[in-house]
Amino acid sequence: MTDEAQIEISAGKGGNGIVSFRHEKYVAKGGPDGGDGGDGGNIYFESTTRTNTLSDYVRIKAYRASGGGSGGPAKRHGKNGEDLTLFVPVGTLIKDMDQNILFDLTKPDQKILVAKGGKGGLGNVHFKTSTNRVPQEATPGEEGEQKIIALELKLIADVGLIGMPNAGKSTLLSVISRAKPKIADYPFTTLSPNLGVVSYKNKSFVIADIPGLIEGASKGKGLGHQFLRHVERTKLLVHLIDCQSKDALKDYKTIRDELKMSNPNIISKKEIVVLTKSDLDCTEAKKHFKDALVISAATGQGVEKLLQQISKRV
After folding, report:
1. CB–CB of 61/4 below 8 Å?
2. Hey, which bits of 154-283 come out as E strands?
3. Alpha-carbon distances of 175 from 41, 203, 296, 304, rounded to whole Å
4. Is 88 exposed, middle or buried (0-12, 13-18, 19+ CB in 10 A)?
5. How far is the CA of 30 from the CAs of 25, 26, 123, 133, in angstroms?
6. Is 4 exposed, middle or buried (0-12, 13-18, 19+ CB in 10 A)?
């Protein structure tokens, strides 16, 4: 999944107005009739649920709306340029080059104008005066707005699964939803966030499996630092801790510290602490987390109780 991109957008140029005069039989010194140019096309961004990646905008980095047509004789107005709509996933931030947020598209089908097309030029019909009956003047169309736009995607999920690499996040997501994340027994299995929709007793909620964090993630270490932004929009954090860890308490504190350094507001989110892989020995880990839920995604132990807690708190 690609969650960052930078593109150049150019709205359409306005069409030129023209200099033209009537040529009609029995009409002496036919007056000016040069038409106006059409307006250039605008560029819009629209949020959609049909995609959850910005990969298209990594492959193609420049977008241009069509220009307006020139005016014609007999006061004919030039054709307006066609607008261009760029579709982005729900949760996309539209930023300028200084990283100022211009728009935050958090709902489906939000459509916003980002670059306005140039106005069409005026034909010479506008410049006729009592002292200038044969105006030779027309104006060119205006240039459309040109911008460099930064796109940043923050997934919209109700629940974020967090924890160290191999804490069992992807396995749990595959058990409770129809998501099919890649699962293997080595660090950094999850290279990008996975989304799953969980249905539980007439309720449904979206869960994001955030790639495993390590100490120093907020400063760029490991892979998870690229995806810390996706935790920001979640309502509830489910913090998974591997029962077999040599120091489960340290793992927990490491993740919390990294979240706090990334964004202090994250640390105040509701949290459910879960000890995973309970089919193995969890005796030592339970000493530090007496109120934690204990589950095994492999056997199903405790998963029902976890879903109850998530459903209640979301």
Report:
1. no
2. 159-163, 194-200, 203-209, 236-242, 270-276
3. 48, 17, 10, 11
4. buried
5. 9, 9, 15, 10
6. middle
Place of tokens 């200038």: 132
Q: Which two tokens stand for residue 158?
A: 């109700």
Residues 6+ apart with CB under 8 A from 132: none
Contact 191, 222 (CB under 8 A): no
Note whether 284 and 219 are same-domain residues: yes
Instruction: Domain count for the chain, please give it.
Output: 2
Each residue's pLDDT tens digit in the chain (314 positions)? Answer: 688 999 999 999 999 999 999 887 766 567 899 999 999 999 999 999 898 889 999 999 999 999 999 999 999 999 999 999 999 999 999 999 999 999 999 999 999 999 999 999 999 999 999 899 889 999 999 999 999 999 999 888 899 888 888 788 888 888 888 655 554 444 444 445 677 888 888 888 888 887 766 555 455 544 455 567 778 888 999 999 998 888 999 999 988 988 888 888 888 999 999 999 877 777 788 888 988 999 998 888 999 999 999 999 98
The verdict on 121 and 231 lying in the same domain is no
Q: 81, 117 in Cβ contact below 8 A?
A: yes
- CATH number of domain containing 144: 2.70.210.12
The rounded distance, in Å, linking the Cα atoms of 229 and 95 is 15
